[in-house]
Amino acid sequence: MLKISNLHVTIAGEAILKGLDLEIAAGEVHAIMGPNGSGKSTLAAVLAGREGYEVTEGSIEYFGEDLAALEPEERAWRGVFLAFQYPVEIPGVTNLEFLRASVDALRAHRGEAATSAVDFMKLARATCKQVGLDTDFLKRGVNEGFSGGEKKRNELLQMLLLEPKLAVLDETDSGLDIDALGVVADGVNTLRSPERAIILITHYQRLLNHIVPDRVHVLSGGRIIRSGGKELALELEEKGYGWLTEAAA
Amino acid sequence: MSETANQKRDVDGDAAIGRHLEREYEAGWVTDIESDTLPPGLDEDVVRFISGKKNEPEWMLEWRLEAYRHWLTMDHPKWAHVHYPKIDFNAISYFSAPRSQEDRPKSLDEVDPELLRTYEKLGIPLHEQEMLAGVAVDAVFDSVSVATTFRSKLAESGVIFCSISEALQEYPELVRKYMGSVVPYRDNYFAALNSAVFSDGSFVYIPEGVRCPMELSTYFRINAENTGQFERTLIIAEEGSHVSYLEGCTAPQRDENQLHAAVVELVAHKDAKIKYSTVQNWYPGDSEGRGGIYNFVTKRGLCAGERSHISWTQVETGSAITWKYPSVILRGDDSVGEFYSVALARGRQQADTGTKMIHLGKNTRSTIISKGISAVRAENSYRGLVRISPTADGARNFTQCDSLLIGDQCGAHTFPYIESRNPTATVEHEATTSKVSDDQLFLCRQRGLDPEKAVSMIVNGFCKDVFRELPMEFAVEAGKLLEISLEGAVG
Ligand SMILES: Nc1ncnc2c1ncn2[C@@H]1O[C@H](COP(=O)(O)OP(=O)(O)OP(=O)(O)O)[C@@H](O)[C@H]1O
Ligand SMILES: [Mg+2]
What we know:
The structure holds two protein chains of two kinds. Chain A is of the alpha/beta class. Chain A has helices at 40-48, 72-77, 95-109, 117-131, 148-162, 178-191, 207-210, 231-239, 242-248, and strands at 2-11, 14-24, 29-33, 53-62, 65-66, 80-83, 90-94, 141-142, 166-170, 197-201, 215-220, 223-228. Chain A has a single domain (30-38, 74-248), classed as Rossmann fold. In chain A, 38% of the residues lie in helices and 29% in strands. In chain A, β9, α6 (178-191) and β10 form a beta-alpha-beta unit. The structure holds adenosine-5'-triphosphate (ATP) and magnesium ion (MG).
């Protein structure tokens, strides 16, 4: 589904990703861990098509298509979803209208009719419950005045409604209380299916107790320096990154 | 005229009804105009000619003449934060019959394609497009009794809603009592000019204790072409009455007259409430601003009685230049004045708008919510005056003035003036300036919205506090209008 080869990315002329390789098949869940500033969010942003991130070398193939050539919304239409590490506020735009516009935009590109207001409301409310948000959050401005944890739950809400093919969760588990961790895990596990792939960026092994990943990768210095099974996460928890980064250097 | 004339777009969403009504007014409400046009130029004879054409009472002519003489002594205002070439008032014709067929575009092919694209986006039928663009067509309408129903319903409750010309014939004493009572001809340069040469406009009278049974829309009244450049509107709400008045339409309107200088006067007596909503979308000109309308409007309401309430809500997106400050004089004790405004300026548009709240009575309250949006190379200014006089014990004002910038070559300016001469008064002012951020845009696009939809959604969110004040159908259209107006503003 996703094949990243020798990816080099610069931001404002500075090299951040330096030859990253990663391959994910449909149905898989991959965890990406790594020290602060190693380039995890950069990878997520590049996959979603954020402006200012220049691919100088290498390629990103998504269902055989050159992902880097597409606009951010075109990627969204093809099922790419990013749960942001730092969700931004859009004052005055209600969560409900934002969600519905997103869902309808995606449906339009699949040639499906727009949702009816009533049906969508029902669905949105049910999904709110699933991620542990009061339905009042649908009436509030997008992320406006939400607590850190509420913003993360709101990202999950969006993910569940949009049903992406490739979901990238950038530290969705950070800043969450214990219960919320279960909510993230439930959300991801709900989504998990043979036709979808999920990338979990996380610092905490504990998330991986709830979501068992197929692969765990360590990103450091703009490259994947180690990949392994779920045991790798446990090993990292115990030893930290030092032994790996030193070996890589 | 200004916002109201040539009104074709049905704000009730039922164009057919509108067309029928229009037919009715052609037949019944509008003074016949013989096809003569005055040559350009302005002098006392011109004023006499206009008044004579309308068969006005003698006092009306005298008032016009006084206004004209006063206008001659005045200077063109210079303080607005707008720039435009000096207007040659002698190059304007002050009385013109509807444009002759020869002067007009022969077909839509001769009309600015950009304008046509907008009509299409708004879903305006071809037939109406032609009328809005001033194409030479013989409009043939079916005559149906919708308008009659409408008029009789109003008449039942004693509401008067007609043109100023008609009111001068039918209710001269009412007009005489109120015209100029809120905006005297001395008020400002454009008000003086309007008083001398005003063409036509709306007259509304709501009797004591009556709640007007429907929203009054200019759409029901205005005849296609003859309100002209100098419109005059007068609305009177007697004790305990209520009225909601809608002016304008969302379709960009063209006019051969570049200068528009309207006057709107509102009078609310004890316990009366007037809600006046405007959506203004005059042609802003082509990409270089050529052919755009200059819109200089004086709008003022008088809260004459205790607990009276006047509320202005406006959405301004059109015109090359907009200069207007809907204001409220809070004379009655416990009276309330409100101003909710969205002003969008894009391209080379210049908007200088705001309000004045003049607190005279005790415990008077005013609220000002102004949302200014500037895109591309536009300049958008908010100018607001809050004056608390020594008599206004316990007066309160709250002002919130927000600016949103799209792109980095546009400007937003705020000029708040606060004059408080009563220590018991409370005046609060909040102002913010924000930009549509890259992060917000990216979030929207990541969720599948194209950049234009994303910007319009963000802008609509920014305007929510104002849109909430608009009647429902108007709010929906206003949102759509912003979306269209912002096309091409990003990227
Ligand atoms: N806009 C930018 N301009 C310059 N440098 C940037 C920019 N954005 C990111 N960087 C740099 O790129 C590097 C990688 O950042 P990134 O956000 O991808 O790290 P991360 O692995 O997600 O870290 P964390 O675990 O703290 O979230 C950092 O050194 C960061 O300072
Ligand atoms: Mg990060």
